[in-house]
């Protein structure tokens, strides 16, 4: 499906590279001779990025004639006015921003005042400049990953006298050049890495679900979600990891382009209000409000929230839609592979020779099972919200970011909640939210984020592995069981251990489920039967009829019991083929979690420590 209308343009040239600010002569040559005002803040002037940038411009035609380093976090109207005055006083004809969103937005609006004159407030609004009007050329160098402001047409400036953040939007705010150098973000402290990173994630998520979505911003938003969710913990835990820092910076840029085209929604409306009224840092407010608003919007954009969840690594089996599409699209090569494997050659022939009428009949039959797909998608979408909450908790563990608005600095017991709600309801971002916002719902969302009692969550070594490291680890163990006899010895023994476990045994019995595992390479069949009075583990032939049969490679089972395999993803990829009541089987997963701890210990006790996966 496509929207009725959409636009896309990005006039900004962008260069990326670790250490690239030291090598920008070619990229900036087109600007010729210029007198630049460099806009930054006091911390960056000390922390190193500004020095690096100054050195980078040394052998270029651009002379940095003045530095304005007085930008506070959440820059104000007064700061912008002073910054512009400094640029005018020094006859500057170019603006360079080196900093986070506060610096970049100050530079954008200061450029406007330098060119047009007047007070900052006079220029508040959207697209007041004619398309033939221009500002001074600008170069933006972000030092947070972050706002994506280097590629957005907007700027947000605080008006502390009225407790609001004012929006400005002009096409001409887009710089001629953006320079992304992850080395400049290495000095960003953990808490800021976490909160600014979550800001970028919110941009991508809101761009993907809000009313003005477009195919271009969808593509950018989803990849941004992947880059950020894969790397944010690593960037916080290992601040010098240049790969993770780079991925965050690129994710922030992609999210910036995405939301600059499709806008943001309710999360931003509430965060802007919290920033204006309670001075909560923008990224942190976004991180805390995000899961509450995702829940609020979930039903209106179920499929899109499921897409987000999958992009963040949560997988689920598209059992019904897959089989439908195989038949509908005639991709019988895929089907024939599955069919061959399961030795149902006659079915293969029927399908291959079937007329379109037969196919249509099959599709209709499968349609009646569509509710399973819907059920699974809804669960995946909810799992995405859980993933965000988990991410916040893990970031709190790594960096100490607060997990509710009370700890984030609201000390008056939400006395100004009405002001927050009124300000949020008037925010332009509300226009794009997929659900029409109600004032009382905003109040409930703010309260939920204020009273939330989440606690920091320990981050595992596995969470801190890059995607490349994870897949390298996965390849490590092949043909674990040398023959069927060894497989039975190990896995039947393990299942007996689970049966005898004080927690797992009764939990498995309670399911009443009869599950059969059919292993390949080597071949073996084990049935766990909880349908009767007693939980039974049966090796080999089974005379009853299992409610679910799961066929998989034996290596997959070995990995699964280490807690390192994603069953739902394996179902989607057909690494595991499940026959029977799949939703019921998936409900086993939370029950089985304690078993992942037991399996390596069991192998060790059996004298098989060499089979334990690293
Ligand atoms: P920020 O610019 O306010 O910076 C936060 C702090 O981080 C500052 O103290 C700064 O000195 C420090 N810092 C930045 N980079 C550093 C580095 N490399 N090393 C050490 N310290 C560093 O934070 P932000 O989240 O990037 O920007 C927030 C502002 O951006 C808000 O005003 C928000 O409303 C605005 N914003 C704008 C857009 C847009 O498209 N224009 C989008 C989102 C947010």
Structure description:
There is one protein chain. With 614 residues, this protein is an alpha/beta fold. It folds into three domains: 7-187, 3-Layer(aba) Sandwich (Rossmann fold), CATH 3.40.50; 266-451, Dehydroquinate synthase-like, alpha domain (Up-down Bundle); 475-611, Nonspecific Lipid-transfer Protein, Chain A (2-Layer Sandwich), CATH 3.30.1050. It is built from 25 helices and 14 strands. The chain has a six-stranded parallel beta sheet with strand order 1-9-6-4-2-3, with helices on both faces. The chain has a five-stranded mixed beta sheet with strand order 12-11-10-13-14. Strand 10 (514-520) and strand 11 (524-529) form a beta hairpin. Helix 11 crosses helix 16. Mean pLDDT is 89; it is low at 317-336. The structure holds nicotinamide-adenine-dinucleotide. Nicotinamide-adenine-dinucleotide is lined by residues 41, 43-44, 47, 49, 73-74, 99-103, 105, 143-144, 146-149, 152, 154-156, 165, 184-185, 187-188, 192, 196, 199, 282-283.
Summarize the structure.
The chain has 614 residues and is of the alpha/beta class.
Q: How does the SSE layout of this entry go?
A:
Elements: E1 13-16, H1 25-28, E2 34-39, H2 42-47, H3 49-57, E3 62-68, H4 77-89, E4 94-99, H5 101-116, E5 125-126, E6 138-142, E7 154-159, E8 164-169, E9 177-180, H6 190-209, H7 215-237, H8 242-262, H9 266-278, H10 282-297, H11 302-311, H12 319-329, H13 332-341, H14 345-353, H15 356-367, H16 370-399, H17 417-426, H18 439-451, H19 467-475, H20 484-500, H21 504-511, E10 514-520, E11 524-529, E12 536-539, E13 548-553, H22 554-561, H23 567-572, E14 576-580, H24 582-586, H25 588-605
């Amino acid at each position: 499906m496509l929207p009725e209308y959409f636009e896309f343009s990005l006039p900004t040239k962008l260069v990326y590279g670790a250490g690239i600010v030291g090598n920008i002569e070619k990229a900036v040559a087109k600007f010729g001779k210029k007198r630049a005002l460099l806009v930054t803040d006091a911390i960056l002037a000390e922390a190193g990025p500004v020095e690096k940038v100054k050195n980078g411009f040394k052998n270029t035609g651009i002379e940095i004639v003045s530095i304005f380093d007085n930008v506070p976090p959440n820059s104000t109207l007064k700061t912008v006015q002073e910054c512009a005055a400094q640029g005018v006083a020094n006859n500057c004809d170019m603006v360079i921003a080196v900093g986070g969103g506060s610096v970049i937005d100050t530079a954008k609006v200061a450029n406007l005042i330098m060119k047009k004159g007047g007070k900052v407030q006079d220029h508040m609004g959207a697209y007041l400049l004619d398309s033939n009007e221009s500002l001074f050329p600008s170069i933006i160098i972000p030092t947070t990953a972050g706002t994506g402001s280097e590629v957005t047409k907007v700027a947000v400036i605080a008006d502390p006298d009225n407790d609001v953040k004012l929006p400005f939007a002009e096409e001409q705010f887009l710089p001629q050049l953006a320079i992304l150098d992850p080395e400049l973000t290495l000095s960003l402290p953990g808490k800021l890495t976490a909160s600014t990173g979550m800001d970028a994630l919110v941009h991508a998520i809101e761009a993907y679900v809000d009313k003005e979505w477009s195919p271009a911003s969808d593509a950018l938003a989803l990849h941004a979600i992947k880059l950020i969710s894969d790397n944010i913990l690593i960037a916080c835990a290992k601040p010098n990891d240049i790969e993770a820092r780079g991925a965050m910076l690129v994710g922030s840029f992609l999210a910036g382009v995405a939301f600059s085209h499709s806008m943001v929604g309710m999360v931003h409306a509430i965060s802007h209000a919290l920033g204006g009224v309670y001075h909560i840092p923008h990224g942190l407010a976004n991180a805390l409000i995000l899961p509450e608003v995702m829940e609020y919007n979930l039903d209106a954009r179920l499929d899109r929230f499921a897409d987000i969840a999958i992009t963040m690594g949560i997988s689920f089996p598209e059992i019904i839609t897959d089989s439908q599409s195989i038949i509908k699209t005639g991709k019988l090569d895929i089907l024939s592979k599955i069919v061959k494997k399961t030795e149902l050659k006659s079915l293969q022939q029927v399908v291959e020779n079937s007329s379109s009428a037969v196919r249509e009949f099959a599709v209709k039959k499968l349609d009646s099972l569509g509710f399973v797909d819907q059920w699974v998608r809804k669960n995946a979408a909810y799992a995405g919200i859980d993933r965000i909450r988990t991410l916040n908790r893990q970031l709190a563990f790594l960096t100490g970011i607060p997990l509710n608005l009370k700890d984030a600095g609201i000390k008056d017991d939400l006395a100004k909640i009405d002001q927050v709600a009124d300000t949020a309801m008037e925010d332009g971002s509300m226009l794009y939210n997929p659900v029409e916002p109600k004032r009382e719902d905003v109040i409930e969302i703010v309260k939920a984020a204020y009273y939330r009692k989440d606690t920091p969550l320990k981050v595992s070594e596995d969470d801190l592995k890059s995607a490349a490291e994870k897949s390298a680890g996965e390849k490590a163990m092949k043909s674990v069981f040398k023959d069927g006899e060894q497989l039975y010895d190990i896995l039947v023994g393990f299942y007996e251990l689970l049966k005898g476990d004080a927690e797992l045994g009764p939990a498995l019995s309670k399911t009443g489920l009869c599950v059969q595992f059919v292993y390949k390479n080597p071949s073996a069949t084990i049935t766990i039967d909880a349908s009767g009075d007693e939980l039974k583990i049966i090796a080999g032939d089974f005379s009853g009829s299992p409610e679910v049969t799961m066929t998989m490679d034996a290596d997959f089972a070995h990995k699964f019991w280490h807690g390192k395999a994603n069953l739902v993803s394996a179902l989607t990829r057909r690494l595991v083929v499940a026959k029977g009541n799949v939703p019921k089987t998936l409900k086993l997963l939370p029950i089985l979690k304690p078993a992942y701890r037991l399996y390596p210990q069991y192998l060790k006790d059996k004298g098989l420590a060499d089979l334990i996966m690293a």
